[in-house]
Design a protein that fits this description.
Blueprint: E1 5-8, E2 25-29, H1 30-38, E3 48-51, H2 61-64, E4 68-70, H3 78-88, E5 93-97, H4 104-116, E6 122-126, E7 130-135, E8 138-142, E9 148-163, E10 172-175, E11 181-185, E12 190-194, E13 197-205
Parallel strand pairs: 1-2, 1-5, 2-3, 3-4, 5-6
Antiparallel strand pairs: 6-7, 7-13, 8-12, 9-10, 9-11, 9-12, 9-13
């Protein structure tokens, strides 16, 4: 079993599901539980369902009650609290579905939560348009030739150098208010990214779900 969790949260429901055999833990927030039921996801494969249950209704508590973890802390989002549980279970790699779509303040909030955990968890989001995640300061990304690649400073990146992109950077700076690195694309099968300071989100285009 791999050290990897699959977490469903309450954004747009995925169109398809990844192979659940690749995960050592599968979980969802209470809001995501709704679309998993509708999509006939095998709910017995869920290790836990967490949240404040303000968006949950129905009789499923009777069937899956042992899987419910009540997390009523209103100072944290359900996504944040689910990541805390995953971290407590000793898992450090998390694939997240349902992180985008719906209300856009939720999307921005999800990015901020991922930023909070970036030194403890390797979090990757997947949706119908792209995969996206925070990139370590020295990274090689493989198998993405001809795919759209957007580099988004969060909120700044200093001395960034890239190789394998159509418009490379050499010791450049990106800032959220002045210069972004969006809508580039990979011309090589491997893309190298290195930067000295700041934090960087990468979006890699493709229909992943």
């Amino acid at each position: 079993m791999k050290d990897k969790a699959l977490l469903f949260i309450n954004g747009d429901a995925p169109k398809t599901f990844p192979d659940i055999k690749n995960y050592s833990l599968i979980a969802c927030t209470d809001g995501a539980f709704h679309y998993l039921k509708v999509m006939d996801f095998p709910l017995d494969k869920l290790d836990f369902i967490s949240g404040d249950f303000d968006s949950h209704s129905g009789a499923d508590e009777n069937i899956y009650e042992e899987k419910f973890i009540h997390t009523p802390d209103q100072d944290k989002t359900d996504f944040h609290k689910a990541l805390e549980i995953i971290l407590e279970k000793g898992i450090h790699n998390v694939d997240v579905l349902g992180g985008s779509g719906g209300e856009q303040d939720h999307f921005l909030g999800n990015l901020t939560v991922a930023y909070t955990f970036k030194n403890e968890l390797n979090i990757k989001f997947y949706d119908a348009f792209s995969e996206y995640y925070f990139v370590p300061k020295n990274s090689t990304i493989k198998g993405i030739k001809d795919k759209m690649v957007s580099l988004y400073p969060f909120p700044f990146v200093e001395n960034i150098t890239t190789k394998g992109l159509n418009w490379p950077l050499t010791n450049g700076n990106l800032t959220i208010t002045e210069r972004l690195g969006t809508r580039n694309f990979a011309v090589e099968d491997e893309v190298f990214i290195e930067y000295k300071k700041g934090d960087l989100l990468i979006f890699i285009g493709g229909n992943y779900l």
